[in-house]
Design brief:
Helix content is 37%, strand content 21%. The chain has 429 residues and is an alpha/beta fold. The chain has two domains: 208 residues, Rossmann fold (3-Layer(aba) Sandwich), CATH 3.40.50; 169 residues, Dimethylsulfoxide Reductase, domain 2 (3-Layer(aba) Sandwich). The termini are far apart.
Length: 429
Amino acid sequence: MIITDVLCPFCGDLCDDIIVEVEGNKIIEVKEACETGVSKMMGHERIAAPMIRENGKLRETTYEEAITKAAEILTNSLRPLMYGWGSTTCEADKKGIELAEEIGAIIDNTTSVCHAPSVLAIQNVGLPSCTLGQIKNRADLIIYWGSNQAEAHPRHMSKYTSFTKGFFTKEGRKGKHVIVFDVRKTTTAEVADDFVQIIPGDDYRVLSALRVILAGAGDVVPSSVGGVPKEKLIEIVDRMKSSRFGVLFFGMGLTQSRGKPYNVANAISLVRELNAHTKFAVMPMRGHFNVTGFNQVCAWSTGFAFAVDFARGKPWYNPGETSTVDVLNRGECDSALIVASDPAAHFPRKSVEHLAKIPLIQIDPCPNLTTELADIVLPAAIAGIEVEGTAYRMDGVPLRLRKLIEPVHLSDEEILSRILSKVREIRGD
């Protein structure tokens, strides 16, 4: 069976033109996706069955026993932490937030270690943005700042920006100009028309210089800012003003550089000011396929996009205090539930050391480093392959993931629903 127009559940681009061949409830071929997307959809080693750690070793068990044990841990915990959520559906996210409220947990997602500065900046200054479809059809100037699309989002340039033809961009690459700002020459920079190398940590200064030049006060700008000659900055501002439709994409090279949310706010302010001269938009390059979706669900459910603390019986939010790495570094939480994420592979050593000390529950389709620390492992079906549901593309457009094959395990949503039911049963609710 050939299934067309499939969404790829890998990165924030959520490419929607994938062709999948299924035979005997197994995916045997994937076309149009990038190598990473193909790899995910073709499948990896799976967690075979639910497991519980006894005497230092994981043993296989039933969902019922593992879910009951997980519910007991969360119910008896004084300071539970729930983290992950970037690679599952919005429906699972909603159920996770309901569970967090029930047990008075902190619930946080991968935003807190990547685009949290973007969220903070957007809350303060807004976001003059658009959809990826508008960019494909209209943009003739594409700027990538601190993001390496060729490796992080492999089809982004061919599907939405540099190498695609749109309704008003019929010339494709010939009619577009690509500028890359980064601290090193990346793979993306190698295919750009202009590569602007910035001294690490000087993004804010360069953005400020561009704004000053745009405001007509270039005389006060020194001969070089952040390692970029003034003449080059003036040339870029002129090109920005003369474009028909420009877009500035930014990644973790901006959000995690010195200045963090102030960098992002400065970039957004630059784009807002450019709209006095032409049409310009700005967009964060989000990583996991539904990391944006969790922010949406969490915001409309609690009023906050990430790092929400329910310990007071109502949502409370203070990034730097209620965000996951900070909570772990302080040794504050006494249990953790990890969903669709692998913090043991990415978090600072001190955070991982605390995860190893406390009861740890993992819900994930595939084994990873966090599995090695987990006390309870609950295998899940793969969202967008074995489970349908909603996901938000990086531009905030909700799209529907499809079920391509029958699942071998329960979905994240079903597992969380059962844990929640068991928690309420234990509490006598």
